[in-house]
Amino acid sequence: MQPSDKIFIAGHRGLVGSALVRQLRSLGFENLLLRSRQELDLEDIAAVRAFFEKERPRHVFFAAAKVGGILANSSYPADFIHDNLLIQLSVIGAAQATNVEKMLFLGSSCIYPKLAEQPIREESLLTGELEPTNEAYAIAKIAGIIMCRSFNRQYGTRFISAMPTNLYGEGDNFERAGSHVLPALMRRFHDAKLANQDEIVVWGSGSPRREFLHVDDMADASIHLMRVWAETADDGSVVGGQNALNEIVNIGYGEDVSIRDLAELVAELVGYRGTLRFDTSMPDGTPRKLLDSTRLRATGWRPRISLRDGIARTYEWFLAHPAVARLG
Ligand SMILES: NC(=O)c1ccc[n+]([C@@H]2O[C@H](COP(=O)([O-])OP(=O)(O)OC[C@H]3O[C@@H](n4cnc5c(N)ncnc54)[C@H](OP(=O)(O)O)[C@@H]3O)[C@@H](O)[C@H]2O)c1
Asked: Is 137 an active-site residue?
């Protein structure tokens, strides 16, 4: 991937897409193709095909998707499977038809079975039942992975599937209903601080453990993977192993944290001094979710942003962007 290459970032206004744009620009990549949903609806297969034929991007970061937390996933499962399948059909098909050199497709750790052995290795894919609350979304993402893998086998494309852990950071979704756990806690503690609320109730016992990666580390890992993964070395070997093109790659921080410790850290950094009460009558979900990122680490990549620094940066951004931070 050279700085002059034409690179399409699908979903460039999203959490991951905007981090990719920031990072690529800081590395001197200026030939970025960016289209808002109004300019190009990725569910429109014909429009997407025409766009790829006209623009001929050399590389694609596929960071567009219909994304949401538990509530959104369990309330609108039809939208999650329908929209994501359509977006994937459009983009993957157009990328193959117009000879895109490499594409990084973003999946999610929820594609792995609910009871997968921890830390979760890539080999767990399709070995057990999914978490029912986001099954529709996970099935759409699994279809995307298998599409990439099948296109690689049949057409010789280089489509890489990356599975990020829970991401957070500047540009996150802070909506009350649709957000993930970390931005949701940040928003609640911020509101409680302003309202001088004495106590906040956090769902569950606080004991489940989760992994969080700052989105700038995610962007860094994505660019790194595009550069090294599935490259053919001078000796003919393929980086990532002989089966690199049929494999998926986990992108994780490498350590997990209990929801209780996370909540206490977010409260501290937000400056909320009230009491956190854990409501044990609410369900906890899977006890632990940590990705095994050995495959990625073996290519020499490491995360750089600690959870504490990452949360502090995210809160600074939240405070500085009241209108942009989605405050619905
Ligand atoms: N956030 C996480 O914790 C996390 C974890 C694991 C994996 N991932 C994966 O990473 C990828 C990016 O996630 P994200 O958190 O960056 O999501 P996000 O902030 O919601 O961004 C998704 C982007 O896709 C765009 N998009 C959706 N449908 C579109 C359509 N029909 N046409 C054009 N654009 C469309 C959205 O545009 P609008 O702004 O117009 O809606 C948005 O800019 C997803 O594949 C997700 O599964 C995310």
From this structure: yes
In the predicted model, is pLDDT for residue 184 greater than 70? yes
Across residues 271-280, what is the average pLDDT? 95
Residues lining ligand 1, CB < 6 A?
Answer: 11, 13-17, 37, 41-43, 63-67, 87, 106, 108, 164, 166-167, 173, 180
Collect all residues with Cβ–Cβ distance below 8 Å to 100 and sequence separation of at least 6. 52, 57, 58, 59, 60, 157
C-alpha dihedral, 190 to 196 to 202 to 207, nearest 10°: 80
- What are the tokens at 243? 């089966």
pLDDT at 324: 67
Ligand 1: centre distance to CA 60 (Å): 15
| Residue 107 CB coordination number (10 Å) | 25
Mean pLDDT calculated for residue range 61-76? 87
pLDDT score of 176 more than 70: no
Cα separation, 189 vs 191, whole angstroms: 5
Nearest protein Cα to ligand 1, atom 17: 14
Contact 80, 86 (CB under 8 A): no
The residue among 15 and 246 whose pLDDT is bigger is: 15
Q: Which of 22, 51, 67, 82 best tests ligand 1's pocket when mutated (most atoms within 8 Å of CB)? A: 67
Pick the residue whose CA is nearest to atom 2 on ligand 1: 167
Supply the pLDDT for residue 99.
Answer: 98
- How far is the CA of 197 from the CAs of 114, 269, 279, in angstroms? 36, 17, 17
Query: How many CB atoms are closer than 10 A to CB 223?
Result: 20
* Structural domains present in the chain: 7-169+211-255+289-306 (3.40.50.720)
CA–CA gap between residue 43 and residue 83 (Å, rounded) = 7
